[in-house]
Write a structure and sequence with these properties.
Largest sheet: 7 strands, mixed
Helix content: 40-55%
CATH superfamily of the largest domain: Response regulator
Number of domains: 2
Number of strands: 15
Strand content: 15-25%
CATH topology of the largest domain: Rossmann fold
Shape: globular
Distance between the termini: 84 Å
Order of helices and strands: HEHEHEHEEHEHEHEHEHEHHHEEEEE
Strand order of the largest sheet: 7-6-8-9-10-14-15
Radius of gyration: 23 Å
CATH architecture of the largest domain: 3-Layer(aba) Sandwich
Number of helices: 12
Length: 388
């Protein structure tokens, strides 16, 4: 009898442990068989958190919308979050964890080209689909056939931007490159090619380093060349400081940049010095398509009146592109649905239509030129729209 009571007690304890484990599993979205996990790759703290934070918000909105409509393949979508802090080593570790421990079926991110390049190699080596909602530099997804991106490429954005500038009568340009950053070096190459092709004149080239805080020497060299435009191919942190030095030395030129300067910290840090700047990208909330209006309204309502930016929209679209590919393939296995994903044509995203061309590179149009009219407005405003 005593032995029977002991066995009964053990059995009850095991049942209680199972029940607790079951409750815990439900809180995280159920077992791996019941859900489809998607990994968020981006920075939630640090210098480039202004890209990752809105990206995560857009990604969560996509997951919520999918789940409200039955999920993917009848399974609920669970977002697995991690903060890579803008660090390449941390990004590699996170991707490896997503694959080996978390059981994700896709990785969405990173928005930065340098991080995407190393994360894509890790994903490719482990046969995991990765799609970047922001990497624009050449070679960012060259790792292989599991790697994608859905963003306006610099190879398309630069020529369109230069065309607009030339039409406005701007002929002479100073080109400033952060030589220790893949994104900046790549972007400068595209600007040089576009300017040479369209008859622009590069009057001076200057180099900086990411992390520099004193640009007096570079601006002193640029000043006597009197360019019409300063093309700055780095990120917003250095751009804000650089343009303050430009104003300090009595120059009134504005600067032109890619989406590395598309963040609220540009005008918060740069103030009046960055007013009139031109930043090109593939999305503007001031020119929404029909597909975009619902997203913009829902985003504003969900996030206390905030305006969705390019990163929020493209993270949202990235998950929707993955979901459509899984549905077409009738599989969440990356080795199966990646081929369907590569066939994506005219996907009607909130950030514009996306078609994957050769080597899974996106073809997107138009190019939106955004400007800071008044730093106190705390926003980018639409200046012009240029077709590719």
């Amino acid at each position: 009898m005593r032995r029977f009571k002991v066995l009964s007690l053990v059995l009850c304890l095991l049942l209680m442990v199972g029940a607790v484990a079951g409750c815990s599993n439900q809180q995280t979205g159920g077992s791996d068989e019941d859900v489809i996990k998607v990994g968020f790759l981006g920075a939630l703290t640090g210098d480039v958190a202004c890209y990752g934070l809105p990206g995560l918000e857009g990604l969560k909105m996509a997951a919520e919308e999918l789940n409200a409509n039955g999920g993917i393949l009848g399974k609920q979508v669970v977002i697995v979050e991690a903060d890579n802090r803008g660090d390449t080593t941390e990004a590699i570790n996170i991707v490896q964890k997503f694959i080996s421990r978390d059981g994700v079926k896709a990785v969405i991110g990173d928005p930065c080209s340098g991080i995407t390049k190393v994360a894509a190699r890790t994903a490719q080596d482990n046969k995991m689909v990765i799609i970047s909602p922001g990497a624009v530099a050449a070679g960012a997804i060259d790792a292989g056939d599991y790697c994608f991106r859905n963003v306006l490429l610099d190879s398309l954005g630069c020529p369109a931007t230069v065309s607009y500038l030339m039409e406005q009568g701007h002929k002479d340009y100073a080109l400033v490159t952060a030589i220790n950053d893949d994104y900046s070096v790549s972007l400068s190459g595209y600007f040089k090619d576009a300017l040479n092709d369209q008859g622009g004149n590069i009057v001076i080239e200057e180099s900086i380093q990411r992390g520099d805080t004193n640009f007096a020497a570079q601006v002193t060299k640029i000043k006597p060349t009197n360019p019409d435009i300063i093309v700055f191919t780095g990120y917003y942190q250095e751009a804000a400081i650089f343009m303050k030095e430009v104003r300090k030395q009595g120059m009134d030129q504005v600067f032109v940049a890619g989406d590395g300067c598309l963040g609220e910290e540009l005008y918060k840090q740069g103030g009046e010095a960055v007013e009139g700047c031109i930043v090109y990208c593939g999305f503007s909330p001031e020119d929404p398509k029909e597909e975009s209006k619902k997203f913009l309204e829902a985003y504003s309502e969900k996030y206390n009146g905030k305006q969705a930016d390019m990163f929020a929209a493209q993270y949202y679209d990235a998950l929707m592109i993955v979901a459509e590919a899984m549905e077409r393939a009738q599989s969440s296995d990356p080795s199966v649905y990646k081929d369907e994903m590569a066939k994506t044509t005219d996907f009607p995203g909130v950030s514009g239509n996306t078609t994957f061309g050769p080597d899974r590179e996106p073809i997107k149009s138009p190019v939106y030129l955004l400007t800071v009219k008044d730093a106190d407005d705390n926003k980018f405003s639409l200046l012009a729209k240029v077709d590719v």
